[in-house]
């Protein structure tokens, strides 16, 4: 699920979907590749950590690499839809988008959370359940999205990239494992809920890209141990969590204001 909309199909003149890859599809495949590389980086860092007999959390540099790749995947997820609408997509675009999102925003954050829980000494049943819930929520959400009619200005449920970033923020904030698991279960519920989130269109989509680019810069500064990097990451994480919790209330408030019928003017006494 892209933070805007999925890549659009571009049928040929006889109505048969185009089955050759378009430019937007290569961006979608780049999204999937970033998710794969993030998992590979995580496995490599974990193996090195275990081989050296180290204990505690993984090195910042390794975590920064994983999170940075996930942010790049989210940026590509924004771009593929915009490129498809401007230049045309293929008949495979929507399917490729869903498959890529399962990798980058389903399996990758779920695996990251379970690995973090293991290194935090809290890899119990609740941690594994929370990681599994993220993966299953993304699969269900994408299947539901495929059946929904296009054109609405709102997503039903928290979009998968935002859900994945919310899981990442929980990991970066490093709370007690039990609290983290409850937070991730709540994020999973938000993805399959009926809560509505506005679709960023037009300039708002570029604003999302700007936020993702800023996130990459912050993660790099954090991974390199630069001054104030830790607090900037904490601030970014808090803003992400505040966003996913407060935006639905904003949507409800604005919709109520729009749909509320105008009250008739009071009669004027003569």
From TrEMBL:
<keyword id="KW-1208">Phospholipid metabolism</keyword>
<keyword id="KW-0812">Transmembrane</keyword>
<feature type="transmembrane region" description="Helical">
    <location>
        <begin position="205"/>
        <end position="225"/>
    </location>
</feature>
<dbReference type="GO" id="GO:0003882">
    <property type="term" value="F:CDP-diacylglycerol-serine O-phosphatidyltransferase activity"/>
</dbReference>
<comment type="similarity">
    <text>Belongs to the CDP-alcohol phosphatidyltransferase class-I family.</text>
</comment>
<keyword id="KW-0594">Phospholipid biosynthesis</keyword>
<dbReference type="InterPro" id="IPR043130">
    <property type="entry name" value="CDP-OH_PTrfase_TM_dom"/>
</dbReference>
<keyword id="KW-0808">Transferase</keyword>
<keyword id="KW-0444">Lipid biosynthesis</keyword>
<feature type="transmembrane region" description="Helical">
    <location>
        <begin position="26"/>
        <end position="50"/>
    </location>
</feature>
<feature type="transmembrane region" description="Helical">
    <location>
        <begin position="231"/>
        <end position="253"/>
    </location>
</feature>
<keyword id="KW-0472">Membrane</keyword>
<keyword id="KW-1133">Transmembrane helix</keyword>
<feature type="transmembrane region" description="Helical">
    <location>
        <begin position="62"/>
        <end position="79"/>
    </location>
</feature>
<feature type="transmembrane region" description="Helical">
    <location>
        <begin position="99"/>
        <end position="117"/>
    </location>
</feature>
<feature type="transmembrane region" description="Helical">
    <location>
        <begin position="123"/>
        <end position="142"/>
    </location>
</feature>
<keyword id="KW-0443">Lipid metabolism</keyword>
<dbReference type="InterPro" id="IPR000462">
    <property type="entry name" value="CDP-OH_P_trans"/>
</dbReference>
<protein>
    <recommendedName>
        <fullName>CDP-diacylglycerol--serine O-phosphatidyltransferase</fullName>
        <ecNumber>2.7.8.8</ecNumber>
    </recommendedName>
</protein>
<dbReference type="Pfam" id="PF01066">
    <property type="entry name" value="CDP-OH_P_transf"/>
</dbReference>
<dbReference type="InterPro" id="IPR004533">
    <property type="entry name" value="CDP-diaglyc--ser_O-PTrfase"/>
</dbReference>
<dbReference type="InterPro" id="IPR048254">
    <property type="entry name" value="CDP_ALCOHOL_P_TRANSF_CS"/>
</dbReference>
């Amino acid at each position: 699920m892209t933070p805007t909309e999925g890549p659009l199909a571009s049928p040929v003149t006889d109505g048969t979907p185009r089955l050759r890859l378009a430019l937007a599809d290569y961006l979608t495949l780049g999204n999937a590749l970033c998710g794969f590389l993030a998992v590979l980086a995580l496995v490599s860092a974990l193996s090195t950590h275990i081989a050296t007999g180290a204990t505690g959390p993984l090195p910042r540099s390794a975590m920064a690499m994983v999170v940075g790749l996930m942010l790049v995947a989210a940026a590509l997820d924004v771009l593929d839809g915009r490129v498809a609408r401007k230049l045309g997509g293929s008949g495979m675009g929507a399917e490729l988008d869903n498959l890529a999102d399962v990798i980058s925003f389903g399996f990758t954050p779920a695996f990251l959370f379970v690995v973090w829980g293991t290194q935090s000494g809290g890899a119990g049943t609740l941690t594994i359940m929370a990681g599994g819930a993220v993966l299953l929520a993304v699969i269900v959400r994408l299947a539901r999205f495929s059946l929904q009619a296009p054109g609405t200005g709102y997503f039903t449920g928290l979009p998968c990239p935002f859900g994945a970033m919310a899981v990442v923020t929980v990991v970066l904030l490093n709370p007690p494992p039990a609290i983290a698991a409850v937070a991730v279960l709540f994020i999973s519920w938000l993805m399959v809920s009926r809560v509505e989130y506005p679709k960023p269109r037009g300039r708002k989509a570029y604003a999302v890209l700007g936020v993702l680019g800023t996130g990459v810069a912050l993660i790099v500064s954090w991974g390199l141990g630069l001054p104030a990097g830790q607090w900037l990451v904490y601030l970014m994480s808090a803003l992400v969590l505040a966003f996913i919790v407060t935006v639905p209330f904003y949507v409800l408030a604005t919709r109520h204001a729009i749909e509320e019928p105008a009250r008739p003017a009071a009669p004027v006494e003569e």
